[in-house]
Amino acid sequence: MSRSTHSDVVTDGIRIQAAAQFLPEESDASKKRYVFAYKITMTNLGERRARLVARHWIIVDSEGRRNDVRGPGVVGEHPQLSHRESYSYISYCPLPTMWGTMEGSYVFERDDGSRFHVRCGRFYLVPNSAPLSLESNA
After folding, report:
1. How far apart are CA 138 and CA 118, in angstroms?
2. Which CATH number fits domain 7-125: 3.30.1330.10, 2.60.40.1470, 2.40.50.140, 3.30.420.40?
3. CA atoms within 13 A on the CB side of 100
4. What is the pLDDT of residue 129?
5. Please, which residues bridge with residue 109 across strands?
6. N or C: which terminus of the chain carries fewer CB neighbours within 10 A?
7. Which residues have C-beta within 8 Å of that of residue 61, sequence separation ≥ 6?
8. Is the Cβ–Cβ distance between 120 and 107 less than 8 Å?
9. Which residues touch 50 (CB under 8 Å, ≥6 apart)?
10. In whole angstroms, what is the distance from residue 78 CA to residue 15 CA?
């Protein structure tokens, strides 16, 4: 049985799928710059609408160096998901080493103003991961 380099986690009715792909054309080993594209697809499996407010990424390179990245929304957007709606985006992560990991969480808000954290499980930034379908719709 092979171990997946991707992630698929459901928290409070929100499903987060994550996968990454190495971009050799954007990378330069002589400058210790390894670039990965990653795709996130979020789907509301619950009955209540939710809007993405913020993100928190934990990025760890192969030497154990940790970088926490926090910010509002994703790629400049705050998607709102009704029941069974999905939203996908693609972003990029440069690393100083040939491989690493990403994991984190999103803050979502319900119509009543209550907020909750949605986990994104660990996924791997590795040169030999399965290619992504880089279209923006999952």
Report:
1. 19
2. 2.60.40.1470
3. 24
4. 80
5. 51, 115
6. N
7. 67, 95, 96, 97, 99, 100
8. no
9. 13, 14, 44, 80, 81, 108, 109, 110
10. 16
The residues facing 18 across adjacent strands are 7, 40
The β-bridge relationship of strands 14-22 and 80-81 is unpaired
Amino acid, single-letter form, for residue 53: V
